[in-house]
């Protein structure tokens, strides 16, 4: 294989773009190339008999989008009634999903040399949906593996 045409090789020195999000007290980064849109709080319609992580569905310019409650997906305490939220729209295999988060920050461009593996001290559940981390000033930014995050069939619903 010609290294000059290998996409993963050419990206090894390119900064990684991550949209920073807050879920509870934790900062996560969603790869910018996976993000289609960011929208303010919008109406979410409950879906009967859906997994607990599925908050429902929303209408995005005529498309039905499955809304994933990131707090429930990450096994965190529910958002208090009336607390605001935002949606980060991501795409996986041609389908759109809205990741319901507490807040959305900036796009961060981080050096791949600063990317560290997910620590073994992180809960197994969080490790399964993260692909590593970056050390920011005063906090850790966990990088979300969108494909694993949206793999709801693998979720164990036990408390």
Structure, described:
This protein is mostly beta strands. It has one domain (15-151): OB fold (Dihydrolipoamide Acetyltransferase, E2P) (Beta Barrel), CATH 2.40.50.180. It has helices spanning 7-10, 70-73, 124-129, 146-149; strands at 16-23, 26-31, 35-39, 54-60, 63-69, 86-92, 95-101, 103-110, 130-136, 139-144. Strand 4 and strand 5 form a beta hairpin. The longest helix has 6 residues, at 124-129. The radius of gyration is 16 Å and the shape is globular.
Keywords:
10 strands, 4 helices, mainly beta, OB fold (Dihydrolipoamide Acetyltransferase, E2P), single chain, 159 residues, five-stranded mixed sheet
CATH class term: Mainly Beta
Summarize the helix and strand pattern as letters. Answer: HEEEEEHEEEHEEH
The rounded distance between the terminal residues' Cα atoms is: 47 Å
Question: SS-based structural class?
Answer: mainly beta
Mean pLDDT reading: 87
| Sheet with most strands: strand arrangement | 8-1-2-10-9
> What do we call the CATH homologous superfamily?
CheA-289, Domain 4
């Amino acid at each position: 294989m010609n290294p000059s045409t290998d996409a993963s090789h050419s990206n090894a020195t390119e900064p990684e773009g991550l949209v920073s999000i807050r879920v509870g007290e934790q900062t996560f980064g969603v790869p910018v190339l996976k993000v289609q849109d960011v929208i303010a709080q919008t109406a979410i319609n409950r879906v009967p008999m859906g997994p607990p992580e599925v908050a429902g569905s929303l209408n995005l310019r005529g498309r039905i989008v499955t809304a994933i409650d990131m707090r429930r997906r990450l096994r965190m305490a529910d958002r208090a009634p009336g607390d605001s939220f935002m949606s980060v729209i991501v795409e996986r295999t041609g389908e759109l999903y809205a990741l319901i988060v507490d807040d959305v920050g900036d796009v961060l461009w981080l050096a791949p040399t600063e990317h560290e593996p997910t620590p073994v001290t992180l809960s197994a559940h969080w490790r399964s949906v993260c692909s590593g981390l970056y050390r920011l000033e005063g906090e850790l930014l966990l990088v979300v593996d969108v494909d694993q995050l949206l793999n709801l069939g693998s979720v164990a619903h036990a408390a």
